[in-house]
Specification:
The complex is a heterodimer of chains A (224) and B (394). Chain A is 20% helix and 34% strand. By secondary structure, chain A is an alpha/beta fold. In chain A, the strands form three sheets. A five-stranded mixed β-sheet of chain A has the order 1-2-7-6-3. Chain A has a two-stranded antiparallel sheet with strand order 4-5. Chain B has 394 residues and is an alpha+beta fold. Chain B has one domain: Cytochrome-c3 Hydrogenase, chain B, CATH 1.10.645.10. In chain B, helix 4 packs antiparallel against helix 5 and helix 7 runs antiparallel to helix 12. Classes of the chains: A alpha/beta (224), B alpha+beta (394).
Chain lengths: 224, 394
């Protein structure tokens, strides 16, 4: 089978304008992946499926991943004027000071597809796409028109992660019920406090149950 | 050739993979009847619903509804250490817990580059193939049960299954929730007495398969009900990601044991049976023939199994923290391709743990197979997919 670099080159000659990045993988599995830009993803996917040499006719697995905002702390050396007592008199002295700076690396949602070829019996070729952010720009093109096996898996990712697949023929929740609001597989998902407690004699359970009852929610504190 | 024809073929080619279910128009004589098959229906193998629209007895629409058994297995695994998820994998496809163990162990071994001793590989093959035989036997038993032969054939299958489950119990301590494999080997070694018992059970299997095949081959009602019903085209099967006996019944030669040669499958001689028509009858014949091939593998493995350790001495058990990275490992489970996709961020828990469930993906084309068929055949077609809801809903 072609290496990831060769596949990248083949895609770039076949689909003009497609920008592809190779995502490294430090694991001994050595499964490198190709990061596709969403605007060319469908064309690239069609190329991967129809190209005679690659013939990746089988999409095996579609995975959603949530990468939340990451706060990165780094130490920087800064020159600063500092008030100091030198020889009994106060003076302004220039000094290098360590300063911690924080900046937030914006998070994103990601979807990973594992492709195999049934015709040529090789694989996996891993492709991935990323959304712009985790809140309002979460659209990605659906690959269901290219490989039908993505149909239920993309519905599941929409359900559990909240990635909206444009071009999907039937984008509904798959596992949660239709009226459900949140996306449970996100890292910052908070379990709703609405289940029926069976209070056990643990302090924190009893305290939680009490708070729950006080809030007057349905199904609260059964048996207390 | 006129321009419009050229364009039409170009459009056709572009839409080749766009395998939407065909639209079946009702004949307009009567109202459509909407039936909810399930979630509490004995033929759904668990809690699963099919919203079916009927024109007379003909199915014109079928939408599967999932989630009744959803417990967010993947989220639970993100909060557990790698090893602590091993017993949870038993609960995915609870008929075949050992192949689930194997797929997960294989994915983690790929993630960390862990080797497996030879004896452990043999034990894995023996247990995996025993699992395949008992899964296929019960799948066929359920088919005959769903066609109305109440009890007896299913009990024949379960009698044989129980012998295999007794083997599992004496080796792993549990009939169905085996929790047996570890990263870098297996939990306990099999005693010579256990291997003898396994040889005895395997020696009795060909007779059982012959008996079962006679039941399938010679029963006229069964053939009338299953032949030509629920046909799945090979191109659609590939495009829809169907794997396992379903795919091979449609005539596509793809068996991960042969393609990936994971473990030690390159050492055994076995054939990959293929179907011709892709109907319900073919799917069940393929399962019978596969059971035969599994028995062949079992005989070879039980003859050749070497002595030695069952756990790699260098395998890390305490403080197991894989380096940051990702791996996808897959095996040929009895129901199809079972894969685990793991992402590590260097911590003790997986950052992302994804199960590629063969049962869910194989259901993608359920509607395509059922459209235009009688409602009574939906039960059979659904049964021929062979799913377990613990894996579909996770």
């Amino acid at each position: 089978m072609k290496t990831v670099e060769e596949i990248k080159a083949a895609i770039e000659t076949a689909v003009p304008g497609a920008s592809i990045e190779i995502v490294p993988n430090a694991s001994p599995s050595g499964q490198l992946s190709l990061l596709l830009a969403p605007n060319h993803a469908v064309a690239v996917a069609e190329f991967l499926r129809d190209d005679a040499e690659l013939a990746l006719d089988f999409l095996s697995n579609a995975t959603g991943i949530d990468w939340p905002d990451k706060e990165i702390t780094e130490k920087v050396k800064v020159m600063r004027q500092v008030l100091k007592t030198v020889d009994g008199a106060e003076k302004m002295v220039e000094e290098t000071v360590d300063e911690t700076r924080k900046h937030v690396q914006p998070g994103y949602l990601e979807v990973v597809y594992h492709l195999f070829s049934i015709e040529k019996k090789h694989g996996p070729v891993v492709i991935r796409m990323r959304t712009t952010n985790r809140t309002d720009q979460v659209q990605l093109p659906s690959l269901t028109p290219v490989w039908r096996s993505a149909e239920f898996q993309e519905r599941e990712i929409f359900d559990l992660f909240g990635i909206v697949f444009t071009g999907h023929p039937d984008l509904r929740r798959l596992l949660m019920w239709d009226g459900f609001k949140d996306h449970p597989m996100r890292r910052d998902y908070v379990e709703p406090d609405d289940f029926e407690y069976e209070p056990t004699a643990h302090d924190e359970v009893l305290a939680r149950s009490k708070a729950h009852q006080a809030a007057g929610q349905e199904g609260a504190g059964v048996g207390l | 050739m006129t321009d419009s024809l050229v364009n039409a073929s170009a459009v056709d080619k572009k839409l080749k993979g766009w395998n939407r279910p065909p639209i079946i128009e009702p004949d307009g004589e009567a109202e459509l009847l909407e039936v909810a098959m399930g979630p509490h229906h004995p033929s759904t193998h668990g809690v699963f619903r099919m919203d079916v629209a009927l024109d007379g007895e003909r199915v014109v629409r079928l939408k599967p509804v999932f989630g009744y058994l959803h417990r967010n297995h993947e989220k639970i695994a993100e909060g557990n250490s790698y090893l602590a998820s091993m017993p949870y994998t038993d609960r995915l496809d609870y008929i075949c817990s050992l192949t689930n163990n194997w797929a997960y162990a294989l994915a983690v071994e790929k993630l960390v580059g862990q080797a497996v001793p030879e004896r452990a590989e043999y034990l894995r093959v023996i247990l995996g193939e025993l699992t395949r035989v008992q899964n296929h036997a019960s799948a066929i038993g359920f088919l005959i049960q769903e066609m109305g032969a109440s009890g007896t054939p299913l009990m024949y299958a379960f009698r044989e299954r129980e012998k295999i489950l007794d083997l599992f119990e004496s080796l792993t301590g549990s009939r169905m929730m085996c929790n047996y494999m570890r990263f870098g080997g297996c939990r306990v070694d099999a005693s010579p007495a256990w291997l003898d018992a396994a040889r005895k059970v395997v020696a009795g299997l060909p007779g059982f398969v012959d008996e079962f095949e006679a039941l399938l081959r010679s029963n006229e009602i069964l053939m009338a009900r299953t032949q030509g019903v629920g046909i799945l085209r090979p191109d659609l099967a590939i495009n829809a990601g169907v794997t396992g006996p379903m795919l091979r019944a449609s005539g596509v030669n793809y068996d991960i044991r042969k393609v990936d040669r994971y473990g030690i499958y390159d050492r055994f001689e076995f054939r990959v049976p293929l179907g011709d028509h892709g109907d319900v009858f073919d799917r069940f014949m393929i399962r019978l023939l596969e059971a035969r091939e599994s028995i062949k593998i079992l005989e070879q493995a039980l003859k050749e199994i070497p002595d030695g350790p069952v756990m790699d001495g260098k395998a890390k058990i305490r403080g197991f923290r894989p380096k940051a990275g990702e791996a996808y490992g897959r095996i040929e489970a009895p129901k199809g391709e079972l894969g685990f996709y793991l992402i590590s961020d260097g911590g003790p828990n997986p950052y992302r743990y994804r199960v590629r469930p063969p049962s869910l993906v194989n259901l993608t084309i359920l509607e395509d197979m059922c459209l235009g068929q009688n409602v009574a055949d939906v039960v059979l077609i659904f049964g021929s997919v062979d799913i377990v809801l613990g894996e579909v809903d996770r």
